[in-house]
């Protein structure tokens, strides 16, 4: 059993407040990876940090705000990782772009899960200011990756690049849920051949579909 993050009785000093803030995010990340975001409550996060729920609420207005903040962090991290893998020297084959986008997403399991939760509930239970800050971060990261894809992939426009990232993240959000089913469903997939197709292998499936999206976008002719 891991020890709770260090806490201060009264966080008056700026560095102590920052440490508490960082500890809350770290605990939420750890619990989300271990138990799944849906299962983690504000009380769970507070207990992991060694704080009362009311103290956590001084830093984040809701549990959803904590995870929305982590989603923004993941957007930035994914964009940086994908950019480092792809590089910026054109041209890069569609297969290479697809492999990098899918592979760097697969390396970020919490992000793949959060992508499904963000639009469904995280954005709906936070302040307008929190949603605004999240949207600005997500849009900037998506635009960065879309622009990179347009620069390195032959035949892809800026608009195509934006559509590619929108499609890939939507696919990742869905495929992650299918490829990580609860125990009961996993048992059904394993024992009933009629359901075997539902047992999705996340990375190769996402890479295959990403290649299809890229080729569709780059082969489409203006209407």
Structural notes for this entry:
The chain has 223 residues and is mostly helical. It has two domains: 1-59, Arc Repressor Mutant, subunit A (Orthogonal Bundle); 63-219, Tetracycline Repressor, domain 2, CATH 1.10.357. It is 70% helix and 0% strand. The protein is built from ten helices and no strands. The longest helix has 25 residues, at 128-152. The protein starts with 13 loop residues before the first helix and ends with a helix.
Quick recap:
With 223 residues, this protein is mainly alpha-helical.
The major pleated sheet works out as:
none
Regions with pLDDT < 50 over 5+ consecutive residues? Answer: 1-8
Mean pLDDT: 90
The general outline is globular
Going by CATH, the homologous superfamily of the largest domain would be: Tetracycline Repressor, domain 2
Number of domains: 2
Series of secondary-structure elements, N-terminal to C-terminal: HHHHHHHHHH
Broad structural category: mainly alpha
Q: What would you say the CATH architecture of the largest domain is?
A: Orthogonal Bundle
The number of helical segments is 10
Instruction: Say how many strands there are.
Output: 0
Name of the level-1 CATH class of the largest domain: Mainly Alpha
CATH fold assignment of the largest domain: Tetracycline Repressor, domain 2
Please compute the radius of gyration using only Cα atoms. 20 Å
The level of helicity is: over 70%
- Beta-strand proportion: under 5%
First and last CA, distance:
60 Å
């Amino acid at each position: 059993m891991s020890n709770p993050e260090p806490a201060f009785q009264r966080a008056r000093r700026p560095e102590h407040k920052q440490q508490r803030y960082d500890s809350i995010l770290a605990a939420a990340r750890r619990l989300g990876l271990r138990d799944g975001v849906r299962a983690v409550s504000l009380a769970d996060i507070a207990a992991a940090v060694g704080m009362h729920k009311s103290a956590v609420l001084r830093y984040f207005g809701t549990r959803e705000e904590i995870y929305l903040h982590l989603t923004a962090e993941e957007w930035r991290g994914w964009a940086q990782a994908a950019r480092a893998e792809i590089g910026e020297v054109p041209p890069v084959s569609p297969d290479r772009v697809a492999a990098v986008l899918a592979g760097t997403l697969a390396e970020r399991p919490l992000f793949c899960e959060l992508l499904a939760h963000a639009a469904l509930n995280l954005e709906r239970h936070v302040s307008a200011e929190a949603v605004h800050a999240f949207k600005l971060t997500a849009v900037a990261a998506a635009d960065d990756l879309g622009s990179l894809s347009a620069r390195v992939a032959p035949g892809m426009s800026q608009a195509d690049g934006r559509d590619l990232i929108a499609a890939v993240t939507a696919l990742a959000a869905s495929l992650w849920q299918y490829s990580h089913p609860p125990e009961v469903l996993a048992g059904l997939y394993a024992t009933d051949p009629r359901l075997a197709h539902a047992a999705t292998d996340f990375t190769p499936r996402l890479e295959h579909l990403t290649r299809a999206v890229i080729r569709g976008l780059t082969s489409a002719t203006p209407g």
